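Subject: Sanity check before I submit

Could someone independently write out the structure tokens for this chain? I want to compare against mine line by line before I put it in a report. The sequence has 159 residues.
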Amino acid sequence: MTPSRARDFAGFAAFVAINAAVSALGGWATATSVGTWYQALAKPAFNPPDWVFAPVWSALYLMIAVAGWRVWRRGGGQMRPELAVYALQLALNLAWSFVFFGARLIGPALVVIAVLLAVIAANAALFSRIDRLAGALLVPYAAWVSFAALLNAALWRLN
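---
Independent answer below. Compare away.
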């Protein structure tokens, strides 16, 4: 394996590991309430069944990892300024789980998810300038977070 291929492989593994860590920490925060507090909330008719969330988020986190890795790789394995926005959206994503499920604060979580959605849009736009596929890989994430924001708003209104 050439040094550049080894670097690319290690970078890919790092992006997947970072996203897996965010997923695991978010899952941990979610687990504290999903079977108890969340079940007791009044929910809108469009609330999906619980089993939908894990496969959707697994696919999204993989796409987010690939998008970040592609931009990192385009920079020759160096950290690019666009990756700061990438890190911010991951931090906000994780923060939402802790605010909504961990602290059980539906209204403040709505603020976090609104900011998250804006940062995802900025991230996709910045990534698209460097690698169109990387930007496109964030579109399903933005769509799902848009749906999650709508669900969060409905839960806030109903509860």
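---
OP: Matches mine. For the report I'm noting this point. Helices lie at 3-31, 37-40, 53-74, 82-102, 106-130, 132-137, 139-158.
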